[in-house]
């Protein structure tokens, strides 16, 4: 029997399905993180990078590795904690378990303050805050889930346009006020991009192509 055959038989064994799901989650997290971060880092390096191309490429690969491994690790922690809770509660999953598992994963994996972690956490916080916006009954699309899930089809609802407008206005008004009056609290990456857009664009501009290349 080949190694591939053994692995397939192992993956089909009900006794190991839940444990292998942890590895599968880590794999998916790694691939997703690599795909998203590599493209983002590559574009940012081309548009705003300085220095030798070799150094830029090292930075791209370093950021990609950190993002990918971070998502892989948090998937391992999250799914492991969920599995432990499930086993401890007689095979039942409680609603609070996902919060605690996410809490542990966020603390252990993304608790270290660095550029990549900060971006991920801020993105997640923004997404979490956006969930508070009241929803309409307009269905964006139907997200099919496995039959073992609580619901075989989840309907994702679009934010209510009015409340989303208020949310967007408050969010952008707050960040712009902070940028102008309390810039020290702004995340560095966002501060740099906002400075280039809103402050460095002030005054006289040299429209010659050579000045654009130099910048």
From TrEMBL:
InterPro entries: Pmp4. Pfam families: Tim17. One of its GO terms (cellular component) is peroxisomal membrane. This is Peroxisomal membrane protein 4. The lineage of its organism: Eukaryota, Fungi, Dikarya, Basidiomycota, Agaricomycotina.
